């Protein structure tokens, strides 16, 4: 069984402010060009909607969601549900989320970190790390491919 992880306390504090801004429709980007959204996914145990602010990765015409803090609650919920909504203000989009196999996830993380992902420090790899190191990291940091449901 995977180790259950929690985001650091300062992330929870920052999420409160970020959620309020995103609900108001403010277009926030993570550092650089990483769009932020409110991810709402059905709780795997309660069935109740759970919402967290997230940063998406946009590469080669695809949209990805990676977890810099490992297998946290929203990841486990998304793994169970397989779909969620992304929202910013009144704009809401339903997406299907497919967890990538470790090798594919490593490729996405490697390309993203080489392109300058400001969250790279949470993955504990650098642009010069070997592919094997990215595979090791991908095992503990799930990556999802997001596809719009029309």
UniProtKB/TrEMBL annotation:
Pfam families: F420H2_quin_red. Gene3D superfamilies: Electron Transport, Fmn-binding Protein, Chain A. It comes from the Bacteria. Transmembrane segments: none annotated. GO terms for molecular function: oxidoreductase activity. It comes from Dictyobacter alpinus. This is Nitroreductase.
């Amino acid at each position: 069984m995977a180790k259950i992880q929690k985001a650091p306390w300062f992330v929870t504090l920052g999420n409160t402010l970020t959620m309020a801004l995103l609900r108001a429709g403010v277009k926030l980007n993570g550092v650089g060009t990483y769009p932020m959204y409110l991810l709402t996914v059905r709780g795997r145990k309660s069935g109740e909607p759970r919402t967290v602010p997230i940063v998406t990765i946009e590469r080669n015409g695809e949209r990805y969601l990676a977890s810099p803090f490992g297998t946290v609650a929203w990841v486990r919920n998304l793994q169970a549900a397989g779909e969620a909504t992304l929202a910013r203000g009144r704009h809401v989009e339903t997406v299907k989320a497919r967890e990538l196999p470790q090798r594919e996830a490593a490729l996405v993380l490697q390309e993203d970190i080489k392109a300058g992902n400001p969250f790279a420090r949470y993955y504990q790899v650098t642009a010069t790390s070997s592919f094997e190191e990215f595979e090791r990291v991908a095992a503990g940091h799930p990556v999802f491919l997001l596809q719009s449901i029309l």
